[in-house]
Amino acid sequence: xxxxxxxxxxxxxxxxxxxxxxxxxxxxxxxxxxxxxxxxxxxxxxxxxxxxxxxxxxxxxxxxxxxxxxxxxxxxxxxxxxxxxxxxxxxxxxxxxxxxxxxxxxxxxxxxxxxxxxxxxxxxxxxxxxxxxxxxxxxxxxxxxxxxxxxxxxxxxxxxxxxxxxxxxxxxxxxxxxxxxxxxxxxxxxxxxxxxxxxxxxxxxxxxxxxx
Length: 212
What we know:
By secondary structure, this protein is of the alpha/beta class. It is 40% helix and 17% strand.
């Protein structure tokens, strides 16, 4: 891939989407850790995400915090049947339940006035006002970080591209529970809809206005 022009990430038309950095997905002792997932890649991605969030705030780039919040009444028939059929059991959908500690942010949190979007499954655009929020702010470029690369980052990236946004994935600021799955997801997205970039290059681009 050719070196990207830093102007691509100009704060005037760029937003940072922080996806599902929640206790059930990333914190020791919560759902994914209890299920035996390898958590080291998550911790590394969270550290990079925190640096990216700080850089976005310094450059006045809108930061959008996205969380999945599930409820029994919003669990779709499809998701329940899917989990049952692959052997997870019907209660597998009961992650990040409304009102539980597992749904809380983990190591990140929106500041007063920052945007929050609540979703019910993978894609942050499905059933939410995310597109409207971005359009109202003149956003055309999205940088994605968070969890997990192969699921909610992937689902959001694909839909964003089809909605005519330019999509970039901060490769070191997102993670799957297996490094190869993470790389595979980035490779597939890179073929069709989203470009993987190092978070440092994005942070450098956002630092340019501060130096001017």
